[in-house]
Write a structure and sequence with these properties.
- It is a single chain.
- With 233 residues, the protein is of the alpha/beta class.
- The chain has two domains: 146 residues, Glutaconate Coenzyme A-transferase (3-Layer(aba) Sandwich); 34 residues, no CATH class.
- Helix content is 19%, strand content 25%.
- The strands form two sheets. Strands 1, 2, 3, 4, 8, 9, 10 and 11 form an eight-stranded mixed sheet that branches. A three-stranded antiparallel sheet has the order 5-7-6.
């Protein structure tokens, strides 16, 4: 059985260069590849394009890369929790491509499945459709969206094995599965790395064929983006 394990995050990110396009899993701060993001900040890679549902918050997640001005372009669907993101977008420092959330997910999935493009009704008649092919099917208009093209996909899973099979926990199973195999190289960081064959096949969410490198992460903060508690009387 092919082993996909690498010793650490440094080895997992070999081949990273300025100007590349990265897919980054997560939703808000849930299921983000914390170790990988920290290493990208450390090595100082710049002029990158990030495909991610959002850009984290000001002091965590992709917000750390934004503060270092390492991101040239964000392709996202939601940007409301990051003041620095807003400032850079409005000032013209950051190029932003806003994409409907379902379309963002499907552009990942299409790349994963090897489909070059697909039609969707989302965005028809809006700025999202400008410059894109449109077509009518059964009396309804659709927009042609192309699959993403990325150099690396960075995902975070709960458990994985040496063959690259992955299991996600709870809502961390958001954009992560769709981004596996959707780029030239998929790197997975996991909380628990087990020997190949240890996982129950019926519980695996992503088979190892979609993963090229896997390593065990450490020191996860798992921050809560917004915590609301009830005030006891």
């Amino acid at each position: 059985m092919i082993r996909k394990t690498v010793a650490n995050v440094e080895e997992a990110l070999k081949g990273i260069k300025d100007g590349m396009t990265f897919m980054v899993g997560g939703f808000g701060l849930c299921g983000i590849p914390e170790n990988i993001i920290a290493e990208l900040v450390k090595i100082g890679v710049k002029d990158i394009t990030c495909i991610s549902n959002n850009a984290g918050v000001d002091d965590f997640g992709l917000g750390l890369l934004l503060h270092k001005h390492q991101i040239r372009k964000m392709v996202s669907s939601y940007v409301g929790e990051n003041d620095e993101f807003e400032r850079q977008m409005l000032s013209g420092e950051l190029e932003v491509e806003l994409t409907p959330q379902g379309t963002l997910a499907e552009k990942c999935r299409a790349a994963q499945a090897g489909f070059p493009a697909f039609y969707t009704p989302a965005g028809y008649g809006t700025e999202v459709a400008q410059g894109k092919e449109t077509r009518e099917f059964n009396g309804k208009m659709y927009v042609l969206e192309e699959a993403f093209k990325a150099d690396f996909s960075f995902v975070k899973a709960w458990k994985g094995d040496e063959a690259g099979n992955l299991i996600f926990k709870g809502t961390a199973r958001n954009f992560n599965p769709a981004m596996c195999g959707a780029a030239t190289i998929t790197v997975a960081e996991v909380e628990e790395l087990l020997p190949a064959g240890s996982l129950d096949p019926n519980e695996i969410h992503v088979p190892g064929i979609f993963v090229q490198r896997i390593f065990q992460g450490k020191d996860y903060e798992k921050r809560i983006e917004q915590l609301t508690v009830r005030t006891l009387k």
